[in-house]
Amino acid sequence: MKTLGLLILCLTLAGCGAATPTPPSGQTDQPAGEFFESEDYFVVVAKSGDTTQTLAAKHLGDANKDWMIEEYNETATLMPGQAVAIPKRPWNLSGVTLTGYQLVPILVYHDLAPQAKGRMVMGVKGFEEQMRYLKANGYRVITLKEYVEFVSLKRQLPKKSVLITFDDGYRSFVRYAYPVLKELGFSATLFIYTDYVAAGGNAFTWPELKKLSDEGFAIQAHSKSHGDMVRANAEGAAEYDKRLESELVQPKALFQKNLGYAPDIIAYPYGRQDDAVVRRTKERGYVAAFTVRRQGSQSFVDPHRIHRIQIYPEMRMDDFVKSLSTFSQETIK
Amino acid sequence: MKKRRQTQFFLLWAGMALFAGCSARSGDSVPANFESLLAPHRARAAALAEHGNLRGASEAWKVALTIDPRDAVALAESRKVDEQIKQSVGDRLSRGRDALKRNVHLEARNHFLAVLAMDPGNREAFEALQSQVREVRQVNHTVRAGDSLVSIAQLYYGDRTRSEVIWETNQLPPNPKLTPGMVLKIPEIPGLPFGRPEPAPIVKTPPSGSGPSTAKTEPAEEGLYANPALGAAREALERGEFVLALSTVDRFILQNPRNGEATDLRRIVLLQQGRTLMEQNKLLDAYSAANQLVKTNPKDPAATALLSQARGRLVQQHYNQGMQLFREEKLPAAVAEWRTVLQYDPAHDGAKRNIDQAQRLLKGLEERQQKQGK
Q1: Who is most buried in A193, B35, B98, B331, counting CB within 10 A?
Q2: Could you say which residues of chain A have pLDDT below 70?
Q3: What CATH architecture applies to the domain B258-374?
Q4: Which CATH architecture has domain B138-187?
Q5: Which residues contact B302 (CB under 8 A, 6 or more apart)?
Q6: Which residue in B has a C-alpha nearest to residue A46's C-alpha?
Q7: Does the beta carbon of B70 lie under 8 angstroms from any beta carbon of chain A?
């Protein structure tokens, strides 16, 4: 509103004759006629040496918002003299267009080791190769917070967004995943089940988790015992009720005590849930919950049944790549 | 709401300014490149609106207005497209709600998605999709001898690892034994081609609904961007932005149908686009560009050469694809490929022969299965 008022004032003062839009204050290095601003956009005439990153840093205050310029203008490279539109606000929160909608692949890893073992222990080389593939191919690794905002219609994500998660709480993460993630500037989310914490061997301790949390890794719940949260056939109603309650509530207290916050996001053990589990999960204050299913998730996914894609050690690179689909093509009319 | 009020206020103000006679742009005070900055954004907005992409058009007009807030045409068009969005959104929301009441979930889904395509931040449509619409798109697959979850996943999704989704959807036991005749539900997986891949959709129709047609533009703009539009098209062509160049020049031709310079430019754009697409191995797109050219001028030698080149490569590609599928024993898919060959080259003997052979084989298989079934 302020900008608009300023603009109107400028134009009014300038009188009727001069129609050249007036650059606002603070943009003195751009000559008149090469910088324009409205409520929703900047338009800048690119100079030689300008990149989407420099423009994003200068006008949006963050070089990492270069994707906004690239995606709006449908180009990653700027030509000097080109009028570049810089959106000041999200223009597609849900990621839906006439040709389909955005998907975010959410990857799940478990344990890592120098050599792959069975279905659940990823070899460090394979992992590194996958991470480098993401980097080299323009994927943007987003944070859990950003993802949850996306499924709440509060944040537009880059078109090629990916979320990386690790389940259970293996300290092998620090040795084998952490260095690669750090080098590439990737963020990750750890879903841990509290019975396993400090269990010795490959289990994380609370101080280790606290350190990662302080560094910006998201640590969230994966139940208390890693038991299947769906009611078993032989299980009595009262017995089940008590068990489900402790799986959902006990992690809250332990997180609060050791990490300083209560988790509000959970990954169901084995990805297993039914309507009763989902209902109770919501009632216990979890705003988002993750299952396991080999498909990406759209913004309008049920936030308590968000799909995650399990990555197995034996997966070939082309299988991995097929898991990374970020758009569901569909003619919407 | 607040934003809309601001916009309304802004439009009102701008309207008054125009009315007061401020609209005349003084030539001296306008930088030389001003028009050339504006033209691509105006052209983009108009092209998007013509293709029914109301949201894209609305944003593009806002960009044009950022450069020149007093552009009368942009103001009018921007207002028009925003009004269209408002009306269509209201209409599709109520049709979506109605479909939900009737429990027709796929129809409701369609309406709510259409709302989001026009208004991506629409909370009502978003929440309806999130919590009320159940996705139900799936087909049944009858298990044949030799089928495994992996081979079925490969057949429908082109990705063997998605066998897990079929396993989960059908609540199968670990390491399930599939028996011929068993029926499995195969759900659509977003982001993957489902069944036989279809060519990418070309969006041309505006969203259906009671809203006014979006495809028409005002003829009153004639002369306003006559030369700048052609200049902008040429620049776009030089940068290799063929789509933009074409939409710009098409728009010009719409208003000046007999301008020889423009029709020439259009031919050059299509030709270069077609050649580039051939180089990139985008055969179908190259074919359609060449086809457009030949339609306008059947005697154009460059165009006919490009067309026959694209056609030849497409024929080869589909024919080989058919052979590959045939070897993998995917007979119906192979037949489909060869039928495509015949669409491009109705006299293709190899394709005809292969289709006959595959159909004989398929018939034999079916008969055998029926006997087994009895």
Answers
A1: A193
A2: 1-32
A3: Alpha Horseshoe (1.25)
A4: Roll (3.10)
A5: B271
A6: B37
A7: yes
